[in-house]
Structure formats: structure tokens, C-alpha cells
Amino acid sequence: MKVKTALPADGKHVLYLGDWVFHVGPMFIETPFGTETKDADLHFYGERMVEALEHITEVTSLANWELYRLEPGKLEEYLKHSECLVISDVEAKCFHLYPSFFDRSRRENKIVTFPDRLNIIKEWVYNGGGLMMLGGWLSFSGVQAKSGWGRSLLNSVLPVDCLLVEDLVESSAGFTAEVVNPEHPAVKGLPWDKFPPIFGYNEVSAKPDAEILVRVKETGHPLVVAGEYGKGRLFTYMSDPAPHWGINFELWEGYDAFWQQALNWVKKQK
Questions:
Q1: Residue ranges, the chain, pLDDT below 70
Q2: CA dihedral defined by 183, 187, 191, 193, rounded to 10 degrees?
Q3: Domain ranges within the chain, ordered by starting residue
Q4: CA of 153: how far to CAs of 84, 150, 244, in Å?
Q5: What are the phi and psi torsion angles at 181 (to 5°)?
Q6: Helix (H) / strand (E) containing 75
Q7: 10 Å Cβ neighbour count for 160?
């Protein structure tokens, strides 16, 4: 599968941020004076989700480091052509620190700023954009609370509140799903009785005006929560659409339909 990283020539599409990773190794220690690392691989864990969405739309995918390096104004260009923004396993600070911004050779001793990308996304959702925030070690609060979404400008937009501490809930025995609102268009008619065990999720609390659609059966924590902000819609899935938490989830017979229905809902097609 060839993943698109450029804007489509025309029409609306989905901008998918995150779920790329470099695999490096194995590492060999043969001497007390050094190590040797052999092999490296760039892998897109979101490939399975893109396959599901591309039945109904085009998808552009960017890794966290590509987002980080986007020059000012480029994210706005992507959003202008997007009906939905997917953020999956991306720290909030990836939206802030444009590296060339700190290049002294370019500053010419001038005080400089550039628009806050999270505020741009907030306004984009308010004006009708659809946002999906998906779980993982770098989502919501995340591992060691490093993700920072609860302290971000986008916090007021999300239909859930993040913990102020690490929010990872994990078990090798897996967790299952329990539907709370089976008539909601994003989850209606799916084979929830065959939902496979997921190995973890981010613990959050739903905001008062949000809708809990699915919860974790074993703990009661929200798993799927939907909300609105201005003219826009938001869909949060607190586990991972990809491995490692979602290695079984990708095999679910309702996987494709789940993401297609979620996308159609945030696009207001249902």
C-alpha cells in the first residue's frame, strides 16, 4: 500500500496525523568500546485504518516529525482541503515547535511569532470541520502524562477531559466493549458481540454535554465518545486503531464499517 503524503488535486479528504514509527535494530554489543546497530525500518501502523477509510474518501498521512516541520501556513492549507482531521498518537507539542522558528540566522534580531496551530484547528472545528482523536501512548494524557492534551488549547473542544497524570490502562488479558448508545449512527448495526480484546486504552472522563457511545465493559471507562463544538463534530476513540493495543481490533469484522460510519458522522453525512 502506498500512503499519500500530498494534498489531492481536488475534492475533500481526510488528514491523518500520527501512527508512523522508525524501527531500529537489533543492536549488538561485541566490545566494551562500542555497539553496532544493524537494520532500520520506517513503518506506518495506521495502514489498516487508511485501507478502511479509502473505500469512501482520500487520505493524506503525515508522521509526527513531518507535522513538527510544517512551515507556518501549511497546516491551514491541508485543513482547507480536509473534511476530517485524525490525530492519533501525537503529542500536543508537535503542533507548536516549528524548528526553523528557532534558527538565529533567520531571525535578524526581530521578535517573531506565528499562529498557534491548535487554535487554528479549534476555529476550523468550530466552523464545521470534523475531528477524530484516537488513543495511544502519546494521546490524551499519555505515558508519564507527556502528551499534554489536557493542558492544550484544544482541551475545550474535546468531548472528554484528560487526566493530569499518566492515563494508560493496560492488561495482557485484554478489555472488551459494551455499547451504551446502540442507535447512534457511528456505532449502529456493528457486530459488537464479536469485538475482540484490546490490550489497553487511555482513561478519560466524558464531559457533561458529550455522548458516551461505547464503554470498556470491565471498568466502565468511556471507550467511544462523541461531541460537538460550534458547527463541527468530534469523535474520540480511547484505544489505538493500530498495534499494539489494537492488534486484535484490526481483525474485527466490523473494523472497516466502524471507521467509515465514524467518518460519515463527523462529516455530517449521517
A1: 1-11, 101-108, 269-270
A2: -80
A3: 13-22+36-266
A4: 19, 8, 29
A5: -125, 80
A6: helix 74-80
A7: 23
DSSP state letters, 47-62? HHHHHHHTTTSEEEEE
How far, rounded to the nearest angstrom, does the alpha carbon of residue 107 sit from its chain's CA centroid? 33
**The domain made up of 13-22+36-266 is a member of CATH 3.90.1150.10:** no
Beta bridge partners of 179: 214
Quick check: 148 and 93 in contact, CB under 8 A?
yes
Summary count for the chain: helices (H), strands (E):
6, 16
Q: How far is CA 44 from the centre of its chain?
A: 13
Residues 6+ apart with CB under 8 A from 104: none
Query: Position 185: which residue type?
Result: P
Q: What share of the chain is helix, strand, coil (3-state, %, to 5)?
A: 25, 30, 45
- Per the prediction, the chain carries an average pLDDT of 92
pTM over 0.90: yes
Q: Is the peptide bond before 26 cis (omega within 30 degrees of 0)?
A: yes
Query: What DSSP letter does each residue of 209-264 carry, written as one string?
Result: TSEEEEEETTT--EEEEEEEETTEEEEEESS-SSTTTTTTGGG-TTHHHHHHHHHH
- Supply the pLDDT for residue 58: 94
